[in-house]
Amino acid sequence: MLVSYLYVLCGIPTWHSASCDGNTAMLRINTLLLPAFAACAFFLFAEKYQLMDSAQTGAAVIDGPYVSYRNDSIFVNYIEDNGGTKSVKTDILLSSSKDSIHLLVNTGEPGKTFPVILKSKLSNEKPEYNSVKKMLVLSDIEGNFTAFRQLLQGNGVIDENFNWTFGEGHLVLVGDFVDRGTMVMEVLWLIYSLEEKAKAAGGYVHYILGNHEIMNMSGDLRYVQPRYPEHAALMKTQYTQLFGPDTELGRWLSTKNVVERIGKILFMHGGISGYVNELRLSLKDLNNLVRPHYRDTVFEFKDPRKEILLSDLGPFWYRGYYAHTARATTKQIDSTLNLYGVRHITTGHTIIADQIMSLYDGRLFDTDVHHAGGHSEALLMDNGIFYRVNASGQKFSISAVQGPE
Fold first, then answer.
1. Are 118 and 140 in contact (CB under 8 A)?
2. N or C: which terminus of the chain has fewer CB atoms within 10 Å of its end residue's CB?
């Protein structure tokens, strides 16, 4: 049985000849195909797998990895480019070898990659966390790996080799790290890899989903770079399926929340509308109502609470904090602060300036800036004091904009 299974994994045919008995046929097959079988078996059962070596073919890896599961096998796909011709490189491994698989991911710097170890277990994130002394908060990277890397390195979150150097600090990512850019997978795998590194140092990475993550998972691909559906087609699938329930990134994204509280700060991508306030939901209940519908394509709900939470009044779409009309009042903001026992709200989603801004007398922080336009900043909270910081790690005071009463 094991031999037959390895033949299938290695792509070796298991036919037998009608002109000779079974033993003779198997002897011929083994003799002819032994080199290929041995190479495949060595690959499958090696102690550690470094996946992305295309040096032998001369092809350059330009996208991936894409990790999916089928039966007892793990499929790791990379998109390669060989002189303008794109193709798929696929590694197939046994699920039992998962802990030994080391993926390699591009960084945008020629010849430089970072390793990713697949998680042994995925579980839903908690919605509430205790106060921490230091946090770096940013949003709306949208596939811009270089801006993301520079902000993290410039502010001491990671070193040049993508190791966590932020100690017990928390990195808070407030949605929209996909779409528009050309290095979406690299951004996602960096977040994925930093989670375990942060935990090992006593820190934490919070990845709170925005509307674009959920759009990608539910099939709304208006802002996806054309290269990604093209690459999905090469893998004989659709782009949405790359975040499906049988993929590592899809399973991982499904564990994320849309709202979290860390100490006295509430984080979400869009905001909390007055309608959501009126639901009086705990953060646990709010996230649990939304999570099963990340991949929903119909949006027909019997529960009216879901109608609100998954609409443009919900926490990953709402723009009322920054709208020109029907703008949130201070009373509405205070209602949210009181409901969740916090002093501040932090969002992304809407650019109102080229820098991090404070609104409503310090109650609200907007972290969405035009990273692709060279205006990358993050919000730094250090011992209760808030700063805006750039990719060089310089600290600046935060400008304030008064909201309506």
1. no
2. N
Strand partners, 137: 172, 379
Contact 143, 181 (CB under 8 A): yes
71: left (phi over 0), alpha (psi -120 to 50) or beta: left
Could you tell me the maximum CA-CA distance found in the chain, to the nearest angstrom?
A: 90
Residue type present at position 139: S
Higher pLDDT, 108 or 177: 177
Distances (CA, A) of 272 to 79, 161, 201: 40, 38, 33
Is the pLDDT at 48 greater than 50? The verdict is no
Write down the pLDDT at residue 47: 37
- Number of Cβ atoms within 10 Å of the Cβ of 288: 14
State pLDDT tens for residues 133-161. 999 999 999 999 999 999 999 999 999 99
Cβ contact 181:223 at 8 Å? no
pLDDT at residue 225, as a whole number: 96
d(Cα 282, Cα 260) in Å, to the nearest integer? 11
Classify domain 128-401 by CATH number: 3.60.21.10
The residues of the chain that CATH labels 3.60.21.10 are 128-401
